[in-house]
Amino acid sequence: MDQFLAFTVVGLSTAAIYAVIGSGLVLTHTTAGVFNFAHGAAGMLAAFAYWQLAVGWGWPVPAALAVVLLVLAPAFGLFVERVLMRPVQALGEAERLVMTVALLAGCIALARWVWDPDTPRPLSPFLAGERAVRLGPAVVTWHQVITMATALAIAVGLWSLLHRTRAGTEMRACVDDRALAVLTGADPLRAGRLAWVLGIQLAAVGGILIAPTVALDAQQLSLLIVSAYTAAVFGRLRSLPLTFLGAVVVGLLEAYLAGYLPQNDYLPGLRLAAPALLLFLALLAFPHHRLRGRDRTVVRVPLPGRRGSLVLAGCVLALALFLVSVLTEDQVISYGTLFSLGVVALSYVPLAGYAGQVSLCQLSIAGIGAAVWGHLGAHGELWALPVAVLVAAAVGALVALPALRLSGIYLALGTVAFATVLDRWIFTLPAFDVLGVHIALFDQGSVSVTGPDLFGLHLTSPAELLVLAAVCLAVTSVAVAGLRRGRHGRRLIALRDSEAAYATLGGRLLVAKVAVFALSAGIAGLGGALYGMQLQTVTADQFGLVAGLPVFLIAVVGGLGSVGTGLFTGLAYVVPTQLLDGLGPWAQNLSALLIALAGMGFAHSPSGVIARLRTDWAPLGRDRPLLTALLGALAGCWALAALVPDGGPPAVAAALLAAVTLRGRAAARAAAPAGIPPEWWGLRRPWRPEDGEVLSRATAAAG
Amino acid sequence: MTENSGPLLELRGVRAAYHGITVLHGVDLNVAAGQVVALLGPNGAGKTTVLKVAAGLHPPDAGHLLMGGRDVTGIRPSRLARAGVCLIPEGRGVFPNLSVRDNLLMMTFCGRGRGREEIEETAYGRFPVLAARRGQQAGTLSGGEQQMLALARGLATDPAVLLLDELSMGLAPLVVAELYELVAEIARQGVAVLVVEQFAAAVLKIADHAAVVVRGRIQWQGHPDGSLQAELSSYYLGSPP
Fold it and tell me: Can you say whether residue A188 is alpha, beta or left, with left for phi > 0 and alpha for psi between -120 and 50 degrees?
């Protein structure tokens, strides 16, 4: 009984922290209209800053607390509101979600960059020297008392702020209907600033309270928040009392599992994964009232032409041959992952781009593909590759079942929960048997992966594997483009634009969603298998939730609707990372930070970089003489790189220079000569975006 | 009932465009204090845009917006709202996820010093049904009740200018007649009222002045009498002007 009480006290004090963090999430959601994935990361940064002041520089605790909570946290909140959220305010929910994911990745990279993760940073609990309080048989430390008291004070304060004050009502009104709030004389900017300042302050309180009880580690602290997500989902992201109830359930569950779960190889992971599992269940069990969003803007999905997709495939293959002929073997290994990660990124296109289902667990599914291939295709058996794809597709279909009930941020949360369960539990399991089937993933360590045996030709060298991955990327790119052009692609876009309309037209939501999840997971599984072949040995870390965030962010920056996102993501992820890694180990976090910054910059072209590149380079593609000149220049550069030792970098630079110069020439030539009558615009010369306005002005003046 | 001290709300040569496509080609319109002006016209004529310009939601490309003779072109809509411009937008001008009481609390921002109690008193006094539903989420009220709550802003915050967009949308004719009765009552307190309405008959009963907008221009304006009916049918039905 004493033991039970002790676990209860521990559980309640953890619950108090989850309640603080969860109520911060609810506050940001109801007052800023954003589900902040980076909430935990903000708390993590606050904990690090507090450590730096109180321990690193030896400031007195009250001074350190005051600086972090009253200066740094509000400043960070204002920064987030001004720099990240205001530009995407007019865009949809998905865009705001991407911003917070980018912020999450950025915070983790920043913390690792500033505070070396290999140095331990102990943080002592508050009032650690005082004698603990005895309540009958239970012992409560002062840190726990402070934690619970803080949680209660925050609960009461927040509730009265939201429901009893003008400022709270103003914040809620601005989320409910921003335009109407302006009409009643409220100030949405002021409300947004207040909401973010308060939200980040709450995150900071939670981070500082939880840091002494766990290790001060950037990734672990940022993801502890999964438990707080669960609490917030209990409150349906809007009710504070229910959020507190959820926090108590999660906190007690964790404490009792830690105390009573039998010790063996299979179950410790379950304890870590329990909050994520509970989150998954809570998402499914509770009905969700989505905020009424009238500002839902849907980004257009470009329609790739048959020729365009073949050109893209040709570019992929040419790039692969170029890399193989120019690079040394070591470089082939490090740059080769470009194509396999490209395949993983391409899996976002049908799922998120066409069907509008945001998933953050694609790299985890790729990990399943890699592990299955590693075990079944241990000697390169070719049949194992389709099996790996099918297993990944089956897992994807499994994720799709809950997705039927979820959409938007709830779906993204569900996939985060799924990836967390895989990370913390399934991927850490030793091999086990279910219903007579032997299941082995990462065997608590690493799995060695070999290349496939293509009808007697065993592909093992890095160059062969690179070409194989490139061929797969080219083929899947053409296939995904074909999907977009066909009726299935139209169906997916109809599903994205309006599920209700899709269903009333006779479409079956269940079939369509399961199919697109399975398809996308199959592509991810293929990408994972190829990635594994190039890495030769794979571990669970390489396929974790956090490892997958940069891939997702770059795919978003490229444009989730564009088929070229696969190649773009591979290039934009692998090339800068490899170049920066050459500078030294410190640069590794810098590249992660750059990716996060790129994600934050995406607000300025929400339809993606590729769409812009297409319009920029289209004149060159239509200009035959200049195109021929470009191809000649590229071939020359290739020859230079292949024949001259160390000619690679100058050749690439020369090729880029030639391409950019010729593009400028082509754009100048395509600018129409004056004197073509308006009715021939679009026929005798290409249609330009500004033509519409010229015509409407002309007709308006005439009418 | 019309005060003769010049127009309270004045649009002078207003041109406005969306994404480079011009919608208003120079609109001149005056509304005096205590006057009800009906703005009529076919779909897509630019009626709602006139209201958006008047409320500061859409900055005009050319021309001026004047209130009480003072140029207020380009002033932020929230400041205009606090200065007494009250636009009740198309659809339901209420916050659906806020309670009736919180919706009324939001009106204190443009209430020019009126406190919560005063606003609640006025609103509940005129619409007792809202008092009975004060704790309920506004989105769960009936359409007529939501429109009452929206109109309560025009009533309780003592605006100088009241702009109404399609008040009748989705409501039963009896409810519409009742609401326009209230609009006339608000005008009698000296408020300049500009009403956009597809359902012309409802508003013409109380309007002192009518203007017909066609393709971004005011094609006809004057007293709403028999000649207006002929004008309207020609513009709506497309007979040669």
Answer: alpha
